[in-house]
Write a structure and sequence with these properties.
Leucine Aminopeptidase, subunit E, domain 1; nine-stranded mixed sheet; 470 residues; Leucine_aapep/pepB; 2 domains; alpha/beta; Peptidase_M17_N_1; 34% helix; Aminopeptidase; six-stranded mixed sheet; 20 strands
């Protein structure tokens, strides 16, 4: 069943819509010179000059909105600027609006995307009247179903990450995954608690066994068995205390978001299934709480992983790579055509690139190029970091094949990726994304809280890889 078009975008121009005119800084003087004295005076009074993000609401003689001017500075970039239109959606009163200025290929989609994403709100725990929507006439050439699909995927990530662990532990995350699978006609399976040991998922069990909310592996499959296999793995640490290597309270405050990788995996799966892409999709989510109890795994423990490799626990707060190792090993058994994992894995990734640019790792130059190209067209920034093999020396262990973290603390995002790579030995097309899954403050189209980062870029890359879209 296709995703419905969001109520804040309409595909049909309406006679009552208000025109939005885009003006560069260089074009604004000529446009104002040709306008009425009233318009020139109004613009001068309010300081409108066409600078980037300048917004001017022009009234008519009755006081109603006649049109809206949006300054674009030197002009919209070739890839567009969703934030500019998100800002419009935030500042304009309720009503229906239509972009009257011409847009280049791709700009209409990003304009509508920014407009839609601005109107997201997480209201599960707050009563209040919903704000009236700002409706945008869909720009020419924009695929309404595709837009709705991307907006719905982003909203799913935000909703899942924003939900506190009391309502989004491993059991509840599995329930959300089951609902998604059933809605799309996919198969759903979960291996819970000691069943993980019976089915050889020892690291997932070790990390999650201290919690009363039992650890589990969520497994969704969909699509034609003969189609190219695409497997998506998502880190589902529903809360991370750090384990016995306990985090300080400041470091624990946002750890409900440590299942952000799982949220991305489910959202990507939803988008792929809704689009009916010609792939055999599998979603694997190790869902755990890294809690503290008498059952906690300990620093110094050695765990024999599903792959058969032994790992010494140097730090119980490096748990994400442990649970991912078993899921990646399972995925690798099938040698899919494409294997992607999302994980809120390291603080080092944020130190390197900040919260907005998401690092990714792959040994495939073709995949890297494809993801970077999709990233630009989606205004969804990613940056490739190296799988620099000499740094694996930092994970040496005197008693096991390697450790789960190193003493130096340097190149943490890279050493984490190198750890994961040891469990992907048969699949050449693998991408690991170390995502933040959070907005620290409110910005246009990006409210404070859970966020889908690199999701659009990965989705567009997959669409282009398995269809004729360019």
């Amino acid at each position: 069943m296709p995703t419905p078009l969001p109520v804040f975008v309409t595909p049909v121009p309406q006679s009552t819509s208000v025109a939005i005119l885009l003006l560069t800084e260089s074009a604004t003087p000529d446009w104002l010179a040709a306008a009425s004295p009233f318009v020139r005076g109004w613009a001068e009074t309010r300081g409108f000059s066409g600078k980037k993000d300048d917004i001017l609401i022009l009234p008519d003689e009755s006081g109603k909105i006649d049109c809206v001017l949006l300054g674009t500075g030197g002009g919209l970039s070739a890839e567009g600027d969703p934030a500019a239109f998100a800002r419009l959606a935030a500042e304009l009163p309720a009503g229906t609006y239509d972009i009257a200025s011409p847009l280049e290929d791709g700009q209409g989609y990003l304009a509508a995307l920014g407009w839609c994403l601005q109107q997201y709100a997480f209201t599960r725990y707050k009563d209040g009247k919903a704000s009236e929507p700002r409706v945008l006439v869909l720009p020419a050439g924009v695929d309404a179903a595709d837009l709705a699909r991307v907006v719905a995927g982003t909203a799913l990530v935000r909703d899942l990450v924003n939900t506190p662990t009391a309502d989004m532990g491993p059991t509840e995350l599995a329930a959300a995954a089951r609902v998604l699978a059933e809605s799309e006609g996919a198969s759903f399976r979960e291996i819970v608690g000691d069943g993980l040991l019976q089915d050889n998922f020892p690291t997932i069990h070790a990390v999650g066994r201290a919690s009363p909310n039992a650890p589990r592996l969520i497994d969704i499959t969909w699509g034609d068995e003969k189609a190219p296999k695409v497997t998506v793995v998502g880190k589902g640490v529903c809360f991370d205390t750090g384990g016995l290597d306990l985090k300080p309270s400041s470091g624990m405050r946002l750890m409900k978001k440590d299942m952000g990788g799982a949220a991305h995996a489910l959202a990507l799966g939803q988008m792929i299934m809704d689009a009916r892409l010609p792939v055999r999709l599998r979603i694997l989510i190790p869902a755990v709480e890294n809690s503290v109890s008498g059952e906690s795994y300990r620093p110094g423990d050695v765990i024999r992983t599903r792959k058969g490799l032994t790992v010494e626990v140097d730090n119980t707060d490096a748990e994400g790579r442990l649970v991912l190792s078993d899921a990646l090993a399972l995925a690798d058994d099938e040698t899919p055509d494409l294997l992607i994992d999302f994980a809120t894995l390291t603080g080092a990734a944020r130190v390197a690139l900040g919260p907005d640019v998401q690092p990714f790792f792959t040994d495939s130059a073709d995949l890297a190029t494809a993801l970077e190209t999709a990233s630009r067209s989606e205004a969804d920034p990613v940056w490739r970091l190296p799988l620099w093999q000499p740094y694996f020396e930092d994970l040496k262990s005197p008693i096991a094949d390697f450790a789960n973290s190193g003493a130096s603390g340097l190149a943490g995002a890279i050493t984490a990726a190198l750890f994961l790579q040891r469990f992907v030995t048969e699949t050449p097309n693998w991408i690991h994304l170390d995502v933040f899954a959070w907005n620290r403050g409110n910005r246009p189209g990006r409210p404070q809280g859970g966020e889908a980062l690199a999701l659009r870029a990965v989705y567009r890359m997959i669409v282009r890889r398995y269809t004729k879209e360019t």
